[in-house]
Each structure stands twice: as structure tokens, then as C-alpha cells.
Amino acid sequence: MRVTSVSETDPTVSNPVIPGFFPDPSVCRAGDDYYLACSSFEYFPGVPLFHSRDLVHWTQIGNALDRPSQLRLPPDTASSGGIYAPTLRHHDGRFWLIVTNVSGDGNLLFTATDPAGPWSDPIRLPGVHGIDPDIAWDDDGTCWCTTAGVGQIRLDPHTGETSGTRRQLWSGAPGAKAPEAPHLYHIGDHWYLLIAEGGTERGHGVSIARGSTPTGPFEPCPANPILSHRGTDHPVQNTGHADLVQGPDGSWWMVLLGVRPGGGTPGWHVMGRETYLVPVEWVDGWPVVGELSTDMPAPPWPLGPPAVAPERRDDFDAAELAPQWISLRRRLPEDCTTKERPGSLTLRARGESLDDADVTFVGRRQQHPSCRVRTLVDVTEGQGRGGLAVRLDELHHYSVETSAGQVRVRARIGPLSTVVASRPVPPGPVVLRAETAPAPMVDARTGPDLVSLGFEEPDGTYVELASLDGRYLSTEVAGGFTGRVFGMFASAASAHFDWFDYEPLES
Ligand code: 6LW
């Protein structure tokens, strides 16, 4: 996150305010603090949580679901399955997080006194059906749970029991794809029901309706969709899945997801759906959403300290991994530890390759269009094999891996899997490298970037083994709801990673 100050009086801030695959943002305010939660799908730990004091600078403070009793993702959990959209709220002095595990126990409710955790074990919600659950309290303390579709039911948030009948609140704009991501707000004299519709691709948009009670009836806003970039050439596309929040000065703002397609036409996005911020004005009791720009005028209040980004280089000196590190479906202490070799992350292989859903993997999201990722890995023990991956899912990944005396680059693109290049190397630890750079020219035939993979000789000289088209690691090609993750993996015996360095490059 960088504040590009044009001048002290007129700084601009860059959007997305949270770059990288952090979709389906839900935001809440508690006094002078703001907290935001995102979807996490097949990754463990799940539901990344951020903190801000100014809605602009967001620092990840943890992951709400960081133990198996909270997040059970079976080995056969599909990529882009698992944890779908959360809603995060502050009520009665507690934080409430409601979310759907589409590959496990359905809708679940968690509470915490500190959003940094620990969060409770789940309260199961067997009577809540559908994804994108929202939770809101009426003035009399009644709790309403609203889900995609848009259905609503009364909920006891302490027991998870529902009561009454599920009522259909609104079906969104005529002919639009199913309304999703409902959020209910009591603002002034009205209850507002905010939804996403059109699907999370290029047709995505945000619509709203209002009524005099939390159960409706709801009157659609005449200006719906109040936000959409469908049919435009705006650099941010797929805008939708929003949440409203009041700024420190009482003004209103919206967080939402969007993507940055690159390359030729139709454009391919590789960092997933990212979290954006946009101002909102109220006119005649309806929200009017301001211009979403990637370099937007800073909000009219003093900006807090810049976000604390993940450490560029991790030497794995700490007993626990920092919150930006994510694994696939689970993280078993016997397979992923910094205790076996102090100052090193030891990964013990479960699967035999990145094609396996159960591969031992620890990675962090790509958050910059251009970046260089390096890691020092030692597989010299026994028949070890492991390496550095650029992953979208089991069917779309590039990797540079090493085993006794050899380094090779593998590419998996859908049904195709091949070793693109290999090179003998002396036995012993080796620095593996992956870096992304904008494609040299942009026309209808070029993807957004090239992904270079290789290793470093002992004197640091980079030996590029392959330069591959980044479009095949994009969501437009692979489908799904996530974005690229750079990760370390073990695919035979064990691999020891002494450090991991993620260097943003000017693009
Ligand atoms: C999310 C829903 C959606 O739950 O995608 O396309 C799901 N719309 O709002 C995953 O992000």
C-alpha cells in the first residue's frame, strides 16, 4: 500500500486498498478502528482479517479460522471450494463472523472479543441455507440472517437456531443473475438491502433496495445498479460484492471487489479479485457511488500510518508462521515446521506434485503485477524434492523444483503437463527464482505478463530456464475465485527452505 502524495494538501491513494486475492470484502467499524474480512476458499488458515484506522491502509492481523476445529477442508476439497464470502460485524461489544464452508459444514458463525483472535469454535447454522450469509440486528435485538437469493430468517446467534419461516426479500433487478452478497443496514429512517448481481465476472454490479423494516418490503433504487463497470473499458472490472461503512468523519464509503485485467483483449487477471474502496454520497435517501479510480483522492481525514505489509524476506526464525502464509486445505505440524531445523521451514511431502490436492505447500498471494520471488531450498537429504511454485490451482501452475543434482521447470496448463527445461546443478542448497514482468507488447495475442523461472548460481548469477506466458495462470483461463499464490512445496521426502524473499518490482 503506498500513499502517492501529490502534495500534502492533496494526496492520492492507490486502489486496490488491499491488493492480491482478497475477495468478497466485509468491513465493520468498532470505535476508531476498522476491520475487514475476505474469502479464502481452499486455503488454510482461512478468512484473512485486516485492521485500519483510515479505510485506506490495511494491515493483516491474522486469519480468523486458524485451527482444524474451525476450518475442516477435506483433502478432496475442490480448488475455489471451501470458504466463501464472510460477513464481519461488531455488535454488543463482540465481533461476529458468519461464513460458508461449501466443502464442509455449510454456514457457520464465529465470535471474538479481539478480531486478531482467537476466534471461537463454530456455531453451526443448520437452518441457514445458501451462501453469502449476512447478519444484522433489529433495534429490538432480533437477529436476521440473509443469504444469497435473497432469503432471510430469524437467527439466535448464541445457539445457531433459526425460527420462523425463510422469507424471500428481493429477487434483484429483473433478468439479472441471482442476487448474491446481501447486506442489511439500518441507516436513518430506512433499512437498506445491498446486493451483488450479474455474477462475479465482467457483468458484476451492485444494487440496493430500501424498506421501513429489516424484513421489507423493499423498494429497488431507481438508479440500480448503483455501481457496475460492465460494458466499459474501465481498468477495474468485475466490480461488485460490496459492503458499506461510515468513515471517521461520518461520510459513507464502500469496499468491494474488482479485478485488473491485463494483456490484449479480453484481458486476463492473475491476482484474483482484489479489495477496492470508493466514496458514497446520499441523495434523496439513496446512495450514489463515486468514481472508482486506481489513484483516488485520499479521504478527507488524516491518513494513519502506512499499512504494515508482510516482511519482504522471511528467514523462518519465528516459532509460528506469519499470517500471510497459507497452505492447501490443512497444515499438519508434522509436515510443516520451523522446529526441525531452526531458522528454516521444513516441509515434508504428502502429495507427489502440485497436481495433487494434498501437496505440502506454504505460499503467499501475489500482490504486485511485477515481482521477484526467491527461496533457498535444500533437498540434499535422501530423496528429497521440492521447489517454488506459481500456483492458481491443481491444473494451472508453473514451478521450478530441485531434487538431487537437478533443477527443472514444470508447467501444468489444464490437461497438459510437461517438464519445460532442466539443468544439472551441484548437490547442496540452491536459490530458486520466479519473477513476473509485463508482456513486452500488448495485442490480442499477448497475455498480461511473462513468468520467468530458474535458479541462481553460487555467485548469484540468474540462470533463466523458462519464460512462460502468464495468461495460462489467469482466472479467465483457469476459472475459479482465487488468484496467484507464490509458494514453497515438497513433493518427495522433505525440503528445507532457509528463506523466502518476495520483492515487488516497478511494473
Ligand atoms: C461468493 C459469491 C460469488 O460467495 O462468488 O459470484 C462467491 N459470486 O458472492 C465466491 O467469491
Automatic annotation (TrEMBL):
Keyword presence, DNA-binding: no
Region (Disordered): 156-175
Residue spans crossing the bilayer: none
UniProt keywords, alphabetically: Glycosidase, Hydrolase
All copies of domain Beta-xylosidase C-terminal Concanavalin A-like, residue ranges: 313-503
Superkingdom of origin: Bacteria
Pfam families the UniProt entry points to: GH43_C2, Glyco_hydro_43
GO molecular function terms attached to this record: hydrolase activity
SUPFAM superfamilies: Arabinanase/levansucrase/invertase (SSF75005), Concanavalin A-like lectins/glucanases (SSF49899)
InterPro entries: ConA-like_dom_sf, GH43_C2, Glyco_hydro_43, Glyco_hydro_beta-prop_sf, Glycosyl_Hydrlase_43
Protein family: Belongs to the glycosyl hydrolase 43 family.
PANTHER family attached to this UniProt entry: BETA-XYLOSIDASE (PTHR42812), BETA-XYLOSIDASE-RELATED (PTHR42812:SF12)
Name by which UniProt lists this protein: Glycoside hydrolase family 43 protein
Organism: Streptomyces akebiae
